Amino acid sequence: MKAILYQNNSDERYVDKSLVVLHDNVDVIFKDDSDIVHPTIRLNHTLTGNVNYVWLEDLGRYYFVRSKELLAGMLELSLEVDVLSTYKNELRAQNAIVSRNEFDYNFYMSDEKWKLYSYTAKRTIPFPSGFNMGTQQFILGIAGGDSSGS
Amino acid sequence: MIAVAARNDQLELNNGNVINISTYGGVDKGLCYAKGTNRPVTVFRIVVNDGDFDNTNFTLLFGGLTDYNTEDYYEQETILNKIAKLDDGRSVHWLWGSMQNGGCYVRKVSAGRYRIGGVSGMAHRLSTDEYAYVIREANRDYISHITEGATTGYIDVCFMYDGFRVDQGDEFPLLEVFSLNNMVDVHIGGRDSTYYAYALYNQITYMYGSNINCDDLYDPTRYITWEGTLGDKPSMVLFPQWGDTITYPYNLHYPVLGFVHDDDIMITKGNMWGDAIVDEEEEDPSGDGGYSTSGGGGFGDYPSETGNIDFSDPTQMAINVINSGFVTLYNPSLSEVKSFNDWLFNDITDAISGTLKKLIADPIDYVLFLSLCHFTPPNSGAVTYTISYAGINTTVTSKKITNQFAAIDCGTIHLNGDTQTFLDYNPNTKISIYLPYIGINDLNSDDVVGASIHVMYYVDLLTGACIAQIKCTRGVRIMAGDANLNDVLYSFSGNCYEQIPITGTDWRGLASSIMQGVSGAVSLATGNLAGAGAIASAVMSDKSSVSHSGNMGGSFGYMDNQKPYLILERPINNLPYNYRGFKGYTLNQRRRLGSLKGYTEIEEGTLWTDSFNGISKEEAEMLKQITATGFYL
User: Fold this and answer.
1) Which label site among A94, B114, B224, B280 has the fewest CB atoms less than 10 Å from its CB?
2) Pick from B330, B390, B535: which is nearest to A115 by CB?
C-alpha cells in the first residue's frame, strides 16, 4: 500500500492542515491487528524530518502519527484517523446548528463564557429639562369663589 | 422610519424605481433599476452641501454595478470599468479604498483607472477629512481633492466603493456613510484580510458611538440597515450582506441597495427580519421543525405592534376644581404674598372680622394652603385678580391659576447600549431613574436600552401631588419575536410642593409627616456572591441591591435635584486578545459549514454524518465530538 508521509504544522483541530510532504509514494504494510481508525503500519524506510502525519491511499484517510517504534529493522507507526481532514468536503457541505463561531456571531445572544470584572461601570444621563431650582413660585389656595379680574 | 424587505422581494419606490433583491450564485445581491428597464440608476441622493466640490452640492451616490460577471471574482480593470449611471446621465466610477491601512487617498493610475490607498494605523483609518468619488462628465473627471497620502481630521462624507478582499496595502471593499456636517453618524464595517464587517463595526462604534443595526452579518438573507437623521429628515440605508467570502481570494461584494430620505420615499413593507433562513435545496423547511416561512411556530408570527399607550395628560380635563367655584388657586408673587399676609393679620377691620366670624369659626381656615414650587404653573399671565376671601375683596391682587393640572416636560433621551451586546440588557445592565420629588426607581433595561425615553410630569396644583410618566419608544429590534414600543411603561407618584405652614397646627402636622417619611434603609441581596472572573449573569445577579434614595416628596424633593437622570450600571467584560480565535462567540444559527471559517462549535446532535462517504460509526462519533468541542474551518 502506498502512503504519503507529512510533517503537519497545524493544530489537530484544523480542517485544513498545513502539510509538508517529507516522503511521497512510500510502501507500507499493515500490522496484523490494525483497524481503519487506529491502524499500525510498517515500513522499511529511513525517515527524515518530523513525520507526524500520514495519508494512506488504500484507505483514503489522513492519520496522525501517535507513536513510532523500530522493530526488527522495520519502522512501526501507530496512527489515529484525522476525521476532520478526511471528511472535510462532506463536512463543509453539511448544515448544522452552529453554537459558536469566530466570525459569524450574534452579540445579543447571551454568552456564558464571557468573564467580567468584579467592579462595574456606572454613569448618569441627565434629561434635558424638568423642574427648575431657580424658579420659586407660590401657589395660594383660597376656599370659595371667584373674584373680579383686572 | 424602518423599512424592511423580504428576500426575493421587490422594493418599489415612489419615484418609480425598483430594487430587486434576488439570489445569484447563492449570495444575495441587489440592483436598482429604472422601472421597466434594466438600466441601473441612482436610487437616492444624499445632498450634502459642503462647498468643497466645485462649490456645488456634493452628492453621495448609491447604486449598483451595471451587471455582474458570472465568475466569482472580477479583474481589477473590469471592476473599474463598471459604470453606474446617474439619472441625469452622468457616470459614476466607484472608488476603492483601504480601511486596513487607514486613511484614504485616490490616485489616478491611468485613464479610467484609479487606485486608492492609505497610510497605516487603525486609529487613523477614519481620520480623513477627504472624500472621494469620481464623476465622469464628458471628457473631464471630477475627483475629490484627496491627494496622495493625505489623511487628517474626520471624514466629512465618506464614499462607497466596491472591490476585492485582499491583503494589506491593496484595495478591498468598504461601504460606509459618514458625515459630520449633516449629523449622519453611521458606520458599517468593511472587509479586509483580518476583519469582518461586524468586528470592524464594533471598533468603529466604539470610537464613534454610531447607531447601527447589524445582525447575523454572515447570513446572506440579512441586511445591514441604519436609521438616523440627515439634516432634519429621517433617513435609512439598506446595505446588502456580505456573501461567502471565505473560500475565494476574490470575492464579490455588493453595494448599497437603497437609501430612504424623508417620507417622500416609501419602501414596501415586508418581514425581512422574520424571514427564515432557507437553503435553496430545501423545499419545505417546516418539516424539520426548525424554521418555517409561514404559519405558526416560525419566525415572523409574533405580534409586533404595540398599543401605543400615550401620556394621560390631565391638563385636558374640562371639569376640574378651578371651574367648580369652591376653590380658587392663585399664583402670587413674593410681594403679593407679603401683602396678603399683611391684610390677613393686620388689615382686617372689626367689621370684616365680624362678618368672617359669622361665616366660619376660624377665619384662617379660608386659606386652604400656601406652597412653593419649582415650576411656573399655568396662570392668567398679565391679567391679575383681586384675591377674594370669603366673598370679601382683599386689597391684594394676584395672577390666577388657570388649570388645576400642570404639565412639566422633562424631555427625551435616546439610550444606546454601551456595549452593543447582550451585556446591555437584563440581568447584566441595571438602569434606574432619579425622578424629582419621587426618588430613584429601577427600570427594566430591556425596555429602555435602544429606546427613546420621554419623561412627563403632571402636577395637581390643588395638592401638589405629581405623577411622573415614562414613555419608551423604539422600533422592532433585529431579533425574532420582538415588538416595537411606543408606550408609557412606568408611572411613579410624589408631591412637589414645599408647604408653608400658616398656623402652628399646620406646622406641627407638616413636621410630623416629614419625620414619618424619613427613611434610608440599605438592603443587601443575600445568597452566594460570584467570585472575580465569574460568568456574566452570575456577577450581575449577585450584585448587592442598594437603596439609593428615601422619601423624596415635598420638602425633601424641594431641596434635591430638579431634573430627572438615568443611572446606568453595567458590567465590564474581560475578553483577552483574540478571544474569538480561541473560543468564538455565540451564534446559535443554522449554517452550511462551508460558509464559515475560523473557530467553530457545532451544537451536539445537529451534525448528521449519514451521508459521509464510507464513514464508520467510530469515526462519526469522533467527528461529532470534535465539532462539538471546537475546531477550525
Assistant:
1) B280
2) B535
Contact (CB, 8 A) for B20 and B33 = yes
**A124 and B567 in contact by Cβ < 8 A?**
yes
Point out which residues pair with A67 in neighbouring strands. Answer: A78
**Residue listed under C-alpha cell 450600571:** B569
Q: How far is CA B518 from CA A33, A133, B512, B513, B629, in A?
A: 85, 22, 10, 9, 57
C-alpha cell at B471: 414613555
CB B60 within 8 A of CB B46: yes
Q: What is the CA radius of gyration of chain A?
A: 36
Q: How far is B192 from chain A (nearest CA, A)?
A: 13
Residues in CB range of A28: below 8 A, 6 or more apart: A1, A2, A3, A41, A42, A43, A56
CA distance B293 to B7: 11
In the prediction, which pLDDT does B445 show? Answer: 93
Q: Which residue stretches of A24-148 are H helix?
A: 83-86, 88-93
CB A18 within 8 A of CB A70: no
**CA-angle at A31, arms to A30 and A33, nearest 5°:** 115
Find cell 427613546 and name the residue: B452
Closest CA to A107 of B522, B202, B111, B212: B202
Contacts of A126 in chain B (CB under 8 A): 563-566
Chain A interface mutation, best of B327, B467, B593, B624, highest count of A Cβ atoms under 10 Å: B593
The per-residue pLDDT for range B328-354, each reduced to its tens digit, is 999 999 999 999 988 887 776 666 667
Tell which residue, B172, B160, B162, B161, has the closest CA to residue B249. B172
Give the gap in angstroms from C-alpha B339 to the nearest C-alpha of chain A: 13
- Interchain proximity A130–B410, CB inside 8 Å: yes
- Rounded-to-integer distance, Cα A61 and Cα A56, Å: 6
- CB contact under 8 Å between A104 and B587, yes or no, is yes
What's the mean pLDDT when you consider all of chain B?
A: 57
Q: Answer for the pair B270, B9: CB distance below 8 angstroms, yes or no.
A: yes
Radius of gyration of chain B (CA): 33
CB B84 within 8 A of CB B152: no
Q: What is the mean pLDDT of residues B541-552?
A: 58
- Grid cell at residue B247: 473560500
Q: Is-cis flag, bond preceding B427, omega within 30?
A: yes
Which one has a higher pLDDT value, B208 or B616?
A: B616
Residue A125 to residue B568: CA distance in whole angstroms: 8
pTM attached to this predicted model: 0.59
Considering chain A, what is the average pLDDT of its residues?
Answer: 89
> By the CB < 8 Å criterion, does B206 face chain A?
no
Distance between CA B453 and CA B485 in Å, rounded? 11
Q: Tell me the CA distances in angstroms from B190 to B97, B100, B147, one per residue in order.
A: 10, 9, 22
**Which of B570, B593, B623 is the closest to A83 by Cβ?**
B623
Q: Which of B374, B418, B601 lies nearest to residue A131, judging by beta carbons? A: B374
For B573, which of A83, A114, A149 is closest by C-beta distance? Answer: A114
Q: How far apart are CA B198 and CA B212, in angstroms?
A: 11
The CA distance from B531 to B310, in Å, is 44
Q: Chain B residues with CB inside 8 Å of A105's CB?
A: 198, 580, 584-587
How far is Cα B522 from Cα B562, in angstroms, rounded to an integer?
24
The alpha-carbon gap from B551 to the nearest alpha carbon of chain A, in Å, equals 18
Contact yes or no for B277/B221 (Cβ under 8 A): yes
C-alpha to C-alpha distance for B398 and B330, rounded to whole angstroms = 6
DSSP-H helix ranges across B360-503: 445-448
Q: How far apart are CA B585 and CA B575, in angstroms?
A: 11
Look up residue B233 and give its three cell numbers.
429628515
